[in-house]
């Protein structure tokens, strides 16, 4: 699929990796429908994309709410007249240990709310957006591409019962959807980033960043546009489906 003149919905498109993908697609002439909770940041990114000469629109939507997602995708179809790609990128982290015990006493446990809030955005939100996007693409009859953003944490990570489970789940949905949707010409793939430099990492202590770099064979954090480049590769390579790109500088063991 070529990016130029195609329409891409990007969840979490207001900032971070979602913004980086929107900007890269816009630089190649792709139109972008940006979905996020944050209206101010959405507008700023929409303006940056429009300045590159493409169509860009903001959709304020909580991706874990079914009715909002259905309404948003219907609006995208009506605004752009077509949808060719979806990047399931919006996600959040609420880390914590399953239980905390000291001297034989239970001090704390991960709450039901802490677990389900992450599952509801990262997994349920990806399911809802994937379903709506697939329904549009399959019925417009021109195929399409869906990319789920997973994580190196999908293999299991200390303090991330909720996040790791959600990221493993979106990775398995890549394989399931690739098999189900191939008959409609829709490819589905994933990207599992390691640690990418973002506003969040910029606020970390230099010592913590240094420790992180030492664990990464590439010797540095990933760049946001390198992640966006992987998304571009998936979109443009018509034989790539049902698989995950590990964009982690060799971090995964
Ligand atoms: N940055 C990294 O190093 C890294 C590593 C591995 C995986 N990831 C994954 O990449 C994705 C993007 O990460 P990022 O670093 O850009 O994160 P970020 O926090 O900078 O951006 C996430 C965006 O998602 C939006 N969002 C959150 N909940 C939402 C909801 N319910 N509905 C709509 N939008 C919502 C936020 O408003 C925000 O704009 C996430 O799925 C994250 O888990 C990031």
Structure notes:
By secondary structure, this protein is of the alpha/beta class. Helices cover 46% and strands 19% of the residues. The protein contains eight helices and nine strands. The chain has helices spanning 16-27, 39-50, 66-80, 112-140, 161-181, 199-202, 206-215, 224-236, and strands spanning 7-11, 31-36, 56-60, 85-88, 99-102, 105-109, 144-149, 186-193, 244-247. The protein has a seven-stranded parallel sheet with strand order 3-2-1-4-7-8-9, with helices on both faces. A two-stranded antiparallel ribbon has the order 5-6. Helix 2 links the parallel strand 2 and strand 3 (56-60). The protein is globular, with a radius of gyration of 18 Å. Residues 11-12, 14-18, 36-38, 62-64, 89-92, 121, 125, 149, 151, 193, 195-196, 198 line the site of nicotinamide-adenine-dinucleotide.
Beta-strand share of residues: 15-25%
Large-scale geometry? globular
Strand order of the largest sheet: 3-2-1-4-7-8-9
Rg of Cα set: 18 Å
- Helix-strand sequence: EHEHEHEEEHEHEHHHE
Distance between the termini: 32 Å
Question: Which ligands accompany this protein?
Answer: nicotinamide-adenine-dinucleotide
Major β-sheet profile: 7 strands, parallel
Q: Provide the structure class.
A: alpha/beta
What fraction, in percent, of the residue positions are helical? 40-55%
* Strand element count: 9
Protein name: SDR family oxidoreductase
Domain Ketoreductase: 6-194
Pfam families: adh_short
InterPro entries: KR_dom, NAD(P)-bd_dom_sf, Sc_DH/Rdtase_CS, SDR_fam
């Amino acid at each position: 699929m070529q990016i130029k003149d195609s329409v891409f919905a990007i969840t979490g498109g207001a900032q971070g990796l979602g913004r980086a993908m929107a900007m890269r697609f816009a630089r190649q002439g792709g139109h972008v429908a940006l979905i996020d909770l944050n209206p101010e940041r959405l507008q700023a990114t929409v303006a940056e994309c429009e300045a590159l000469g493409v169509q860009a629109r903001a959709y304020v939507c909580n991706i874990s709410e079914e009715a909002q997602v259905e309404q948003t995708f219907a609006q995208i179809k009506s605004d752009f007249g077509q949808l060719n790609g979806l990047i399931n990128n919006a996600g959040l982290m609420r880390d914590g240990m399953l239980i905390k015990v000291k001297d034989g006493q239970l001090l704390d446990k991960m709450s039901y709310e802490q677990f389900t809030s992450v599952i509801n955005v990262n997994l349920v939100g990806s399911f809802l957006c994937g379903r709506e996007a697939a329904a549009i693409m399959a019925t417009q009859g021109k195929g399409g591409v869906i990319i789920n953003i997973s994580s190196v944490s999908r293999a299991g990570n200390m303090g991330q019962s909720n996040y790791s489970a959600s990221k493993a789940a979106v990775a398995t949905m890549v394989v399931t959807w690739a098999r189900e949707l191939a008959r409609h010409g829709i490819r589905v793939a994933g990207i599992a980033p390691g640690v990418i430099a973002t506003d969040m990492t910029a606020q970390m202590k230099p010592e913590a960043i240094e420790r992180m770099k030492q664990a990464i064979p590439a010797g540095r954090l990933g760049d946001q546009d390198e992640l966006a480049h992987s998304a571009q590769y998936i979109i443009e390579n018509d034989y790539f489906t049902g698989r995950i790109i590990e964009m982690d500088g060799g971090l995964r063991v």
